[in-house]
Amino acid sequence: MTPEPGGRPHRTALDRRTVTRVLLQLVTAAALAVNAYVHADLASVYDRVGQQISQGTLFRLEAAVASLAALLVLLFGRRRLVWAFAFLVSVSAVGAVLLYRYVNVGTLGPLPNMYEPVWWPSKSASAIAEAVGAVAALGGFLITRPPRSASARGGAPRGDEVDGVGG
C-alpha cells in the first residue's frame, strides 16, 4: 500500500476488489433467486401421478438448491467453495434447460422425459438468469483469494500439531 497525503495507507486495490465482489454477490444471488422463483412457480404444473420422481419434484429441488446457493453467496461470499457451489448450481441448471430444449433424452432411470422443444417467457427468463448466475459466480470464484495456510500467515504449528499429528 502506498501512503496518501497525511500518512494514511491508500487502499484503492482492496476497495475495488471488495466492491467487485459485493456486486458479483448481488448479481449471482439475484440470478439464483430468479432461477428459484421460476422453478418453484412452475413445479405444480409438472407434477405427474405415478412417476417415481416427477418433473415437479425436480423443479422444487432446483428451487431449494438455488435458494440455498443465493443465501450462501450473500452470507459467505468471501469463500471460494461458496462461489464454486453457486457456479455448479447455475451451470447445471442452464445446461439442463438447454439439453432438454434441444435433445429428446427420454427417461433416465427414475427421471421423467423432460424434453420440451419450445421457449416461453418464464423458461427464457430462467435460462438467462442461470447463464448470468454462472458467469457471475465464476467471476466471484476467480477474484476470491484462496485461504492462506498457517505458514503463509506466519503462524507456527501449535504443540499438538507437530509433524501433522493432532492430539
TrEMBL record:
Highest taxon listed in the record's lineage: Bacteria
UniProt region (Disordered), positions on chain: 148-167
Transmembrane helix as UniProt keyword: yes
Keyword presence, Transmembrane: yes
Species in which this protein is naturally found: Streptomyces noursei (Streptomyces albulus)
Protein keywords: Membrane, Transmembrane, Transmembrane helix
Record's protein name: Uncharacterized protein
TM ranges: 21-38, 58-76, 83-103, 123-143
